[in-house]
Every structure is written in C-alpha cells, then in structure tokens.
C-alpha cells in the first residue's frame, strides 16, 4: 500500500463531497507526522538518510584543512636585517638582534626605520605569509590575525545564519555558505597583499562557520533517533582527514600560496551537493511545508526501496507551539532557556579555546614539528571511537563531565611532570625553569622521557575531542525544533569567543610560562561542574519533558491545552512531577 493511501485511509474526509479534496486531506495528515518516527521507520541505517549524514559530515574536511594550514603558512621565517648605506656614506653600526641595530651614538634603531634597510630571508620569500608580507619584528603580531579573523567572522555570523536557516530552511543556508567559503579561500591564495588576505579570510570564516553549524543541525534532523549516538563517528574521521591532509600537503609544497590553493581547491568537489542534499524533514513538518514533506517521503522511499507505514508515524503529542517561527528575542521569553544558553555557551568557550590552543600550537609538542602536528590530529580518531562507545552505554552528561575533568587533569600533568631533556635547565638553588619553580627537593624526582610526557597534551586533546562528540548532542537535543537553530547560533556566537582568543593565549606567557595551560585547567573544571546541572537528553522521554517545559514558557500567554497527555506524550500525569526529577537527577 502506498504512503498516500495510508494517509488517506487513516483520517478520511468527513466533509460533503466536493468541499474537500483528497489533496487537502493529505495536507492535514502530513502536518501531523512525527519526523522522528518517519526517520526511524526507514531504519537506523536508511540509505537516503545516510547520504545526508555523509554529505553534512564530509564538509568538515574543508573546515579542518583550511584552519590547520595556518600553523604552516604563518611560520616564523629565518631572517636578518640587511643594511645598504647610501653611496658615499660611511655608517658604523652594531647588530643587536635580527630586528634592531645600534649606531655609533648608541641609539637603538629598528630595521624598518633605517633608509635602505630590508629583511633578508634565509628561505624562499614566498614560503610563508610572514616573509612575503614582512610580518616580522614590529608587525609580528599581525600574523596571528590570520587565524583569529577566521574565527571572528564565524562568531559574528553564527546567530544570523542560524536565524535565516529557521526562516528559509536548512538546505540553502547550508549550501550557499559552503560555496561562498570555497570561492573566498581560492581568492585568499592569490591575495595581492595581507589586507586582502584578511578580508577574504574573514569572509571564509563567516561562510565556514555557517555551513558547519547548519550542517550539524541538518545532520541531527536527518537521521533516526537510534543512530544519533553514532553521529560523531564520521565527523571525527572527516575532521582528522582534513587536519592531517594539511600537514601532508606541507611536506610536498613549501610556497604558501600553492599550499593554500591546494587545501582550498577540493571545495570544488562539493558542487554536486546542490542536487544531492535534501531539506530537513523536521523543518518541513514544523513549517507546514506539505509539498516538501511529500517529496521527501517519496524520494526517501524510492531510494531506500521501502514503503513505510505512515499511519504509525503520526505525532502522539500536541506540540503546536513548536510550529511557530521563533526569533532571537523569543529566547529571552523563557528564563529556563536563557540559563540553558548561558551555561552551554560557557562550556563551548572552554571547548573551543582548548581545542584550538592545543591544535594551533601542536607543532611545539616535539622537537620535530611535524610529529607533534600529526599525532595531535591522529589521536582524534581513537577519541571519536571511544566517544561512540561511551555515548551508547552512558548518559550524555556523564561523558561530558568525565571528558572535561580528564582534560583538566591531563593539562596539569603536562605542566608539572619534569622532562628528561630539560632537567639540566634546573637551577637547584631555586631559580625558575620553563613554567616550574625548581627547588632542592627536585633532585629526588625522576625525570620523565619527553616521549612519555608528550602523552599528556595528547590525552588532553583526546578528552577535548570526546566532549565535542557529547556536548553538542546534549544541548541540541534539549532544544525545541522551532528555536533550535537560533539557540545553536547564539550559543555558537558566544562559544566562538574561545576560538578567537585561542591564537593569543600564548601571550599569557608574559605573566607566567604556565599561565595559558592553567587558565584552561581552571575553566575546564568549572565547565565539568556546570555539565552536572544540565538536563539529560539520552532518552526520548527526557527530551520531550524538557522541550515541553521550554515550549510552555515560550508560549506564555497563548492558549494552552488542558489535556495532560499533551504534556507527557500520552502517559498522563502532571508536568511538575515529571520535570523535577529529571532536572535535578544525577547532579
């Protein structure tokens, strides 16, 4: 029996003949479908749903590769100040360092202020951004802007792009930023000056964050509930592919322009996504797009080669409040949602800051910069696999809490375990070595081999990867569909503060060598405590109870249903008696 007949037979028209067409009957039935039940009916691994899963996760390669190329194209070049005095002028000077000289009057001058002076680079001038655009000495801080402006662009656009996604659908707001990012990155590769590079790097950041954020929501809304715990698997793999690919290409390409072009050109392969990417079924039903729902079910049934019983996929709960289009300001109508937003935003700040701090400075993990870089990327694969197992057997909150705690403990071990290769730097009279105060008692401490001590930063990276698999599930699942993208956009906007600040964390070393890591430790422990007061969402009943609480506060003043079954999925009972145990359980 076809899905049209199922719908028509489930709720037949009771109007007189001719007053209500068969099509209008189908419309009413489509609007009462439960998207999760429809997706589950196609199976845990429905082929059409898996295509969307692969598409939305494959773009992580582009995000990772365009971000992780930055440590290589912004490397500090080897150079010296080369001074050519004018003809007939005899000028005596003493070189202080590669940026400054001292003349015969004991005046200290910078190389850039001396007429006829220039920076002479030992390597090819085009090997890095710093050497081609003279981002050294007085301008050395400008190099960090390349990574930071990318994140800043994403931070500013996140609330806007997600709002547009709620209004116009996930598909277009996923594809348009994707293609804008591809074009912008290609322009960066041929930028005539650093300002043009930063402008298009900013645009690329805007677009990349857009397709990444919307892609995540589209992925969540396109797979069966039974599959959601497996969502992080492909995302972790594709991210690591992009991460490692940046290092592999660096081994073969030294010119920064060709390297940046090489990491950007794969984006052209996403052109077919325009025809392959479907709209979110959740969004179609929520926004009453009956034709879109019909097309999705028809295409999915044909692709999956299965006819699903739509009469069994009707929504059993009256959630009409979710059908209203919500805006940024609607979030502030719900106190519980505002608190939920602030708590998750803080956690995202810590997650972002930690990830990018560990990633962008991974070349400093070992004497061989490429070893540290590759290991820092590769460890994300086992971390993703571990996350899948943990998410299957444990609650989202438990996984997030343990991961953030282990992240903090790993950073502490990385800081204070003495390394064998630096033990000769200790002054046993009590002087300071890199980040550690040496005392006579340290003579009794056995030094740790550098290869072993490198385990702890990598363990912190693995912990961070695991929490990235669990925490987005936790706050995305707990947000109603009508406000989900707005919520995720605002949370992402605030969370990207960590990404923007991460490239500058190293400057805290001016206060103390251990300051950057200690900041991460303290903030990670605070985040772990915050996770304990968030609502759990692993089971369907947990999600429904929390969403109904949010919906009722969003709809305050509107007409509400007096039927208890509208609030608890048909099981009866009052809302408070169901909400309180869940909100305060395991805290």
Give a brief description:
The strands form 3 sheets. This protein has a 3-stranded antiparallel sheet, with no helix packed on it. A two-stranded antiparallel sheet has the order 1-5. A two-stranded antiparallel ribbon has the order 6-7.
Write up this protein.
The chain has 587 residues and is mainly α. Among the domains are: 79-122, no CATH class; 330-421 and 447-557 and 569-587, Up-down Bundle (Growth Hormone, Chain: A). It has 26 helices and 7 strands. The chain has helices at 3-10, 22-30, 35-41, 47-58, 60-68, 70-73, 129-132, 145-168, 170-189, 194-220, 231-252, 256-264, 273-276, 281-286, 290-304, 335-360, 369-378, 380-393, 396-416, 450-453, 455-477, 481-501, 515-531, 540-554, 565-568, 575-584; strands at 79-83, 93-95, 100-103, 108-110, 117-121, 432-433, 436-437. A hairpin with a 2-residue loop joins strand 6 and strand 7 (436-437). Helix 11 (231-252) runs antiparallel to helix 17 (369-378) and helix 11 (231-252) packs antiparallel against helix 18. It starts with a helix and ends with a helix. The relative contact order is 0.12. Residues 1-28, 319-323, 421-446 and 557-587 have low confidence and may be disordered.
